[in-house]
């Protein structure tokens, strides 16, 4: 009954990506953790908040990610887990 075309596949993929961003994340104002780490791929740790922001911008991160990174303490982060924790505890 379901026929797959390249167009259908592309639409489904886009919907899946958008669904992750518009899910429960909007209520908390936090970015999708997977998208956050994707935006920071290739960061050489330890890294400062400014280095994380630069990398996210280079990666084309959306506003929710850059705003979240702007709100974390200005310090050195040893690994991706510390960045995620700082973003999660940002209020």
TrEMBL record:
Pfam families, A to Z: DUF2795 (PF11387)
Compositional bias segments (type: Basic and acidic residues): 1-11
Region (Disordered): 1-36, 68-91
Chain intervals with Gly residues compositional bias: 17-27
Protein's UniProt name: DUF2795 domain-containing protein
């Amino acid at each position: 009954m379901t026929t797959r075309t390249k167009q259908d596949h592309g639409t489904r993929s886009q919907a899946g990506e958008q669904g992750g961003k518009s899910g429960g994340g909007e209520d908390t104002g936090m970015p999708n953790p997977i998208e956050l780490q994707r935006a920071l791929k290739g960061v050489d740790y330890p890294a400062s908040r400014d280095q994380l922001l630069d990398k996210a911008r280079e990666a084309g991160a959306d506003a929710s990610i850059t705003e979240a990174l702007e709100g974390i303490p200005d310090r050195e982060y040893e690994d991706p887990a510390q960045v995620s924790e700082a973003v999660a505890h940002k209020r």
